[in-house]
Amino acid sequence: MNYVLIKSGTYQKLQVADKVFPVIKEFKTGARGSYITVDGTILGSDYARPVRIKCTKADIVDVEQDAYDRQLSALAVNADIKTAGDLDSFTPEQDEKRMQEIEDRFEILNEMTGALKSGDIRAMIVTGPPGVGKSYGVTQTLEEQSIFEDVASRNRKFEVVKGAMTALGLYAKLYEFSEKGNVLVFDDCDSVLMDDLALNILKAALDSGKKRKIFWNADSAKLRAEGIPNSFEFKGTACFITNIKFENVKILRIQDHLESLQSSSH
After folding, report:
1. pLDDT tens digits, 242-257
2. Are 231 and 215 in contact (CB under 8 A)?
3. What is the C-alpha separation between 231 and 206, in angstroms, rounded?
4. Do 260 and 119 touch, CB atoms closer than 8 A?
5. Domain containing 19: what range?
6. Whether this model's pTM surpasses 0.85
7. What is the β-pairing status of strands 237-242 and 123-127?
8. Contact, 124 vs 261, CB < 8 A?
9. Which of 193, 181, 187, 74 shows the shortest CA–CA distance to 137?
């Protein structure tokens, strides 16, 4: 089966943007314009399968099945979030209690981030629905604890990585921040959590042994050009901030890797 990313299009009155679909029939230009016929399951139960999405040829990009799998995993994130009607039914007492629970949870997050910076823990996974401030709490704590490094004009010992990243890019980034006291924060960088090779590298970097040795046993012009060795010892720490709930990931080949990563993380 082929898969496509539709950057911009319409189906009935619905705007479709940056979504991946399985292809049922290839792109075609008919009497009513150009369209591609796809499996519209991800659009929700109100939309039938198949669907014809109106778009231009330039709006269609061929992608691999992994891109569709990652999208399905991301859609599972909000499966257990309460509806607005449920939230409206909360009493003032329940609201106050819930706010205190949230405040306590974020205080714990700040303390754990401090432990990550000091090297007392090796890895932390922060999950939850979007927009609740996961990234802010982690970044703010790291900023505060890096003031001395800024004043002393030293290179900052943490970096927030966002967006897509390949396994080779991950290897290079881990090498850059491999020294003790360095922290790498992967913020919505879910591609490294959905790739077998990247997950194997992460498991080696966060192993519970005394020495965490990482290997890249393949020829790479990028590594040679940047002077990166084919193996090194990783002494830093890592934090993963994601909207994905690992237990909702249905990709069998990824599940075991994620369970192993969780076992070595807080």
Report:
1. 887 777 777 777 888 8
2. yes
3. 15
4. no
5. 3-63
6. no
7. parallel
8. no
9. 187
